[in-house]
Design brief:
single chain; alpha+beta; four-stranded mixed sheet; 230 residues; 33% helix
């Protein structure tokens, strides 16, 4: 089963939120998010981890107190001693966490904003770039391809070692080497594009998309400890 959880960033009770986070998470994680200059980036980082913990505990019945996040050589986070995979993304006011028990997963969300598409030409294959320019809504098509590509790279886990223009996406599918990746659009908000990439084809009846309020996540944090979350 695959679950996508998302929430919106708010500035409600920021002082108490960060005080609570400081006491609930590991010192290493607190140090990590405290380095951000903008409270929005710090809070989005914490909310992403809370979405993960909330999903693991309530959807997979996992004891979050005993979990530890480690990182691969390419800095992809994973849960130690667990077959459950996850990925987190945030953009502007939306934070998304995808969790699955059926293989690798990647997710990317982006706020649709006005950009110069030509500046990103080298990030796409010729076919993709032509498709963007031929679209009735070039900006939306740009962010469709962009979130698809980012989700694939995140699912693969090799990060910057895979240039975005080194693979073609067509009909919600692509290959990196001999590994297939299936893309699924996650409809969250009309002002955002979000896609999930998996090695196995995920059908709608095997996936849930759930909005969790930031208030629920704050309350969840107040009664749980995440000292092993790094």
């Amino acid at each position: 089963m695959t679950h996508v959880l998302y929430t919106y960033l708010t500035d409600d009770d920021n002082d108490s939120f960060f005080v609570n986070a400081e006491h609930r998470f590991s010192a290493d994680f607190v140090s990590k998010y405290s380095k951000y200059k903008r409270w929005q980036d710090a809070k989005s980082t914490v909310l992403g981890r809370l979405l993960l913990a909330y999903g693991l505990k309530n959807l997979y019945q996992v004891d979050v107190d005993d979990l530890k996040i480690s990182f691969s050589k390419d800095k992809k986070p994973f849960l130690e001693n667990s077959s459950i995979q996850f990925n987190i993304s945030h953009s502007k006011d939306v934070i998304v966490c995808a969790i699955t028990s059926v293989g690798e997963i990647g997710v990317d969300v982006e706020k649709i904003n006005d950009i110069n598409i030509q500046d990103f030409k080298d990030q796409f294959s010729q076919t993709e770039y032509e498709s963007i320019n031929a679209s009735a809504n070039a900006l939306e098509q740009f962010f469709t391809f962009w979130t698809q590509k980012e989700a694939v790279v995140k699912s693969n886990g090799a990060g910057l070692h895979i240039p975005l223009n080194s693979f073609d996406i067509a009909n919600n599918f692509t290959l990196i080497g001999n590994t297939p990746y299936h893309l699924k659009e996650i409809v969250l908000d009309p002002e955002y594009k979000c896609h999930m990439a998996t090695e196995q084809l995920i059908f709608n009846d095997n996936m849930t998309v759930t909005k969790i309020s930031s208030t629920i996540l704050s309350d969840f944090m107040s009664v749980n400890s995440f000292k092993l979350f790094l």
